[in-house]
Amino acid sequence: MEIDKNFLEKWKYYYVKMLQDAYNIVIKDLEKDVRYYKSLGLPEKKGLAKFNRKLLSTVFRLDDKFWDSVEENRMSNDAGVLAIAAEIAKSNPEYAKKQDGLHQFAIAINFMNTIAASSTNKWLLRVLRDFCEIYQKNPNISDVDAMIEFMRVEDAVKTLDIIDTIPNDVRQSLDLNLDENLSRFVQQYASTYAKADEITFGGKRL
User: What pLDDT score does 49 carry?
Assistant: First the structure.
């Protein structure tokens, strides 16, 4: 069966968008937590970091407003949010499962996103096949669990043991926007291509 070129081109666009949306949503959720934990005074600067901050404050006469602006700048970019989430997890073990899990989840999605634009036709169909099988096994699976299962099937990341620590309530509540970006392509793949013995693209076998 020859696959529709427009279908595949459109799916490639939405595959990239799916990963970008998921990454941004996870970062936003982490930022929300980071701001909440910091309002509680977390994480506390300890050891060398605490000493360096005190030393710089003394030498350059830096007040709390300066350090507050530094922290706000850190939270205005993805790398800063991820770094602070990691600090929270390290300094406060009671928050580690969610923070460590989402931290590694975001990094894994971002890694997949960096190579998404160069995805081959064969890979794009493989992604749809994987998600099709995931949803067939569990039609009510949450977005987070579906993405984690995809990573597991493809052995896409090496930190699944940490990602798996994301608490169940977070897995169930965090909407990664898969309905908009993925569902219609999975449905079309299932109805049109899933049972085909051979799929070709412009005469070339995939």
Answer: 52
